[in-house]
Each structure stands twice: as C-alpha cells, then as structure tokens.
Design brief:
41% helix; 471 residues; eight-stranded mixed sheet; binds 2-acetamido-2-deoxy-beta-D-glucopyranose; 13 helices; alpha+beta; five-stranded antiparallel sheet; Acid-sensing ion channels like fold; disordered C terminus; 2 domains
C-alpha cells in the first residue's frame, strides 16, 4: 500500500511540476498562489475562461459546418472579348421548293382541312416534321437566309458558319461556333473576338426570312430566331430572340460569368466538363453528343429515355443520340409520362442522381431596341435593284445588329466564408485569448501522459525487489 502511495505521490509531484511550468495561463496560478482568496479568484476565472472558450470553439465549428459562402461580384475590365456564338434560324420550318412539293403531296393524301389554324394546331407540322427527319432540304439554305453579314465591317465568311438542325425551326447557322467540323473544341485564337462596342462594328445581319406563297398558310408568322450563347452551350437549350421583318433589331450584350462553390457549399458538382468524372449513363451520353455538359440537356435525355421505355417512342424535342421513334398517335401514354415527369418526384429520384449540376455558367444580358427598317421608296428602289417585281422587300427582310454594350464582364464568384484554415486560426485565436494555450500546449498533455508511463515503468522495475524484501 505504501508503495502505491509512493507511486501516486511521485505522479502528483510530477503533475504539479508540469502544470506550474505549463505555457497556459491561469491553471499554474491556482497551484502556485498561497493566498486562498487569490487561489479561489484564479479558480473562478480559469473555469469561466474555459467555459467561454469551449462555447466559442463549438460556435466556430458549427459555423464551419454550415458551409456558408461569400459572393464576390466584380466588373472585370477587358480590352478584348470573345464574341459569343450567334445562331440564326428562320422561324418557318418549311420554306424551300422541296417543302412546297411535300406539302402538296401531304394535303392530297391525308385530306387535311383547309383551315390553316387547324392545320397548324392539329399537329400538322408535327406530322410533316416526322416525315422529314434530318430533312435539310425543306428549310432555308445559308445563302438564301443570310443575304448580308458583316462583323467589324468586314464581310463574314459564310463557309465558316456551323450548321445546326433545330427540331423547331429546321436549318440554323451558327456564327463563331465553338466546335470545328470534326466536333473538336476550337482554341481561343480560332474564335472571333472583338475590341469594339459600336453598334455598326458588331455583327450586322440582313436576313431573308421570306416564305413562299404556297406555304404561308402553315404558319401566320414570319421572322428570324436569334440565339446568343457561349461557344460550348448548345443553342437548343437557349431562349431565342425574335427579329421581325421590316424592323431593325438591335441587341446589346453584357456578359456575366457565375461560378458557384461545389457541394457541400451549394447544390452543384465540380468538374462537370470532364467526361470521365461521373459514371452515369445519361451524363456520358450528353458528353458524347454535345461535347459539353449542361444539366437541362441531361434532364431532357432523362425524359426521352422514360417515354422510350414506357411508350416505345419519344418526342425528340432536342437533338440527341437517343433512338428516335416519333410518337404519332400514342398521345395517351405520352401525356401520362409528361405528367409523371412534371410531378417532380420522378426527376428527383431518377434524373437528379444521374445528372450532376454544373457550377460555372455564362449568361448574356440583352438590351433590345428596334426601329423600322422599310419605307415605300426604299422598297421600290430595292425591288427594282433586285428584280423582285412587285414584292415588298419589307415583308421579307429582317435586319439584326448584335454587339457588346461593354467589353467588361461581370464575374460573380462564390467562395467559402470559412475554410479549414480559417477554422483553425479562429480556434487558435480563441484558445489563445481565453486560455493562453497553443498547439504546443497540447504537446504538454502528451508529455504528462508519457511521464506517467515512464514513472509507472520505473516503479515496477525498481520496486519489485524491495516489495519482495518487505514481504
Ligand atoms: C395534289 O393536288 C394538286 C391540286 O389538286 C395537284 O396539282 C397535284 O398533282 C396533286 N399531287 C399529287 C401527288 O397527287
Ligand atoms: C436534298 O437535296 C440534295 C441536293 O439538292 C439531294 O441530293 C437530296 O437527295 C435531297 N434530299 C431529300 C431528302 O430530298
Ligand atoms: C472562308 O473559309 C474557308 C474555310 O475555312 C476558307 O477555305 C476560305 O478561304 C475562306 N474564304 C475567305 C474569303 O476568307
Ligand atoms: C428571298 O428569298 C426568296 C426565295 O429564295 C427570293 O425569291 C427573294 O428574291 C429573296 N429576297 C431578296 C430580297 O433577296
Ligand atoms: C397508330 O398508328 C398505327 C400506324 O399508323 C396504327 O396501326 C394504329 O392503329 C394507330 N393507333 C391508334 C390508337 O390510332
Ligand atoms: C464558354 O466558352 C469558352 C470557349 O469555348 C469555354 O472555354 C468556356 O469553358 C465556356 N464556359 C462555360 C461556362 O461553358
Ligand atoms: C431583271 O429582269 C429583267 C427582265 O426580266 C432582266 O432583263 C434584267 O437583266 C434583270 N436584272 C437583274 C439585275 O437581274
């Protein structure tokens, strides 16, 4: 028994020695002060400090796990900016000579009502389109649609436009496309950039959006659809701006780049532009076909896959590498799937896990203004010049100017309000302020543990012969 006490005495002595020599404040004072009142004062304040310290450290750890972000909005000055991709379509799908023949055939065979409204709304155009998959011959050719095109006052090279087949508008042509003819991403110096913000030095287009008389009954409207998008974003998923004939449409752009911090700071996933990053079927298919990735495309794939599985057909709203089997008379099944899809549960259960959300986005803010682009004298002069007999030019011609309002772009970037280093430094600050300890003070605890172990070992070694004698 005496021996054991001796051992504990030794430990106690060592502990007191260590505490007195500790780098922390407060606790050594408790042991060193001889005056009882002072001792109690030190005990009181040491405990108070420890509590406050613990409370504040917990608060900080909680704050770290809230994953708050700070958003930084900056105007990035630039002398030169990459011009966006501009995709130009005629809003009328059927405009060519081949279309006239096709429509005549169809109206004879299927006995379509001669009421143009009915023809339009009773899926007349859908039937036509289903018969003309990839039918490039039914829409405008580039030389018909784009009468004149200038960028920086220099005529554009029409053979550098990219072709895009829109399911809604048919043939479309992209100025300054992001991919070359082999679908490889073009490098920055192959893209057209600009250092001018004057209207006349932007992209100036004169478009012939005419529709032959024989086809005008299909759709009462005419004009051009203009998509403005970043090079890697497919036009299909953008909202177009409409340009009317007889009108000059001016589109002023400012670019905004938004970058979010990936999960857990927001809902988005990192590195979605890397095709090997995620393993889902839909993600890979989108990358295969579009060579870039956006979640909206992936959701559309998800929907098409559902209707393929459930109805054996789909409505290829957007171009894709999925099987295309048009749904002509399975409206019941399709509307059931559409309902299921818009319910939201299907999307969150089956589409969201396969479709990561991208963190980076480029958007263009557009300021649109219009002015009239025709008068009788001009019409007469032009029709004489172009030999157009009595056709009014203002019914066929739309003028469009696209230009940067400012080359500077707005950058909205998120970053973590508190990262791991911030957490460490605030814990360090709190521990230092309230207890005067640091990481090295923690080594002192290790030292105490080791000291006790050594003492224990020694006591066994040195005391065992004595204990025998005592016995
Ligand atoms: C369709 O009807 C028009 C007018 O009745 C006729 O001229 C044309 O030859 C017909 N086409 C076919 C394929 O029968
Ligand atoms: C489209 O036009 C080209 C050339 O004019 C022709 O070779 C091709 O067969 C046409 N395609 C259809 C589907 O009419
Ligand atoms: C237009 O582009 C094509 C293909 O890039 C090129 O071969 C041709 O020389 C260009 N024409 C002009 C006038 O620059
Ligand atoms: C527009 O295109 C149509 C069809 O090709 C053509 O008849 C017409 O002359 C064109 N208009 C102008 C102003 O070039
Ligand atoms: C749908 O169309 C197919 C082929 O045209 C036809 O055999 C079938 O009877 C149609 N079904 C309905 C419900 O109309
Ligand atoms: C926008 O296009 C450029 C040029 O191809 C590309 O480098 C960039 O990653 C694209 N940005 C986004 C957010 O898609
Ligand atoms: C316009 O048409 C007339 C007669 O049809 C023809 O003599 C003249 O050469 C044409 N002009 C042009 C510029 O095509």
């Amino acid at each position: 028994m005496a021996l054991k006490n001796q051992f504990f005495d030794e430990i106690k002595k060592q502990l007191i020695f260590l505490v007195l020599n500790s780098t922390s404040h407060g606790f050594p004072k408790i042991f060193s002060s001889s005056n009882k009142i002072i001792k109690y004062i030190w005990i009181f304040f040491s405990i108070l400090s420890t509590c406050i310290c613990a409370f504040l450290i917990i608060q900080n750890i909680k704050k770290y796990y809230d994953f708050e972000v700070t958003t930084k909005i900056r105007l990035k000055p630039q002398f030169k900016a990459i011009f966006p991709s501009i995709t130009i379509c005629n809003v009328n799908f059927f405009t060519s000579k081949e279309s006239i023949e096709l429509v005549q055939d169809l109206t004879n065979v299927t006995n379509y009502p001669n009421d143009p409204e009915l023809f339009l709304f009773e899926s007349g155009t859908n039937l036509l389109k289903s018969k003309t998959q990839n039918g490039k011959n039914y829409s405008d050719s580039i030389s018909k649609l784009i009468l004149k095109c200038f960028h920086l006052l220099i005529p554009c090279n029409l053979s550098e436009f990219d072709f895009y087949f829109s399911p809604t508008y048919g043939n479309c042509y992209t100025f300054n496309p992001g991919f070359d003819s082999n679908k490889n991403l073009r490098s920055f110096d192959q893209l057209i950039s600009t250092s001018k913000t004057f209207k006349i030095q932007g992209l100036r287009l004169i478009l012939n959006v005419s529709v032959p008389e024989e086809l005008k009954f299909i759709m009462p409207s005419n004009g051009a659809a203009i998509y403005i998008h970043n090079q890697t974003d497919p036009a299909a998923f953008m909202r177009p701006i409409m340009a009317a004939p007889g009108v000059s449409t001016n589109i002023g752009l400012t670019k905004t780049r938004t970058v979010q911090n990936p999960k857990p700071y927001s809902q988005c996933d990192p590195d979605t532009q890397d095709p090997s990053k995620y393993n889902s079927e839909l993600f890979k298919m989108v990358h295969d076909y579009y060579k870039s990735y956006k979640r909206v495309i992936c959701f559309d794939y998800c929907y098409q896959r559902l209707s393929l599985k459930e109805c054996g057909c789909n409505q290829p709203i957007f171009p894709s590498n999925l099987k295309k089997i048009p749904c002509l008379n399975k409206t019941k099944c399709i509307s059931k799937q559409a309902e299921l899809f818009s319910d939201g549960n299907y999307v969150s259960d089956f589409c969201v896990p396969e479709c990561p959300l991208e963190c980076e986005m480029i958007s263009f803010t557009k300021t649109i203004s219009v002015n009239k682009y025709s008068n009788d004298a001009f019409d007469m002069m032009m029709s004489k010049k172009l030999n157009l007999s009595n056709r009014k030019i203002s019914e066929d011609i739309a003028q469009v100017n696209v230009y940067y309002e400012s080359l500077d772009h707005t950058e909205i970037v998120e970053f973590a309000t508190m990262d791991f280093v911030d957490l460490l430094s605030s814990i360090g600050g709190i521990a230092g302020l309230f207890l005067g300890i640091s990481v090295l003070s923690l080594v002192e605890i290790l030292e105490i543990v080791l000291e006790i172990l050594f003492l224990y070992k020694n006591s066994i070694k040195s005391n065992s012969p004595i204990s025998k004698v005592e016995l």
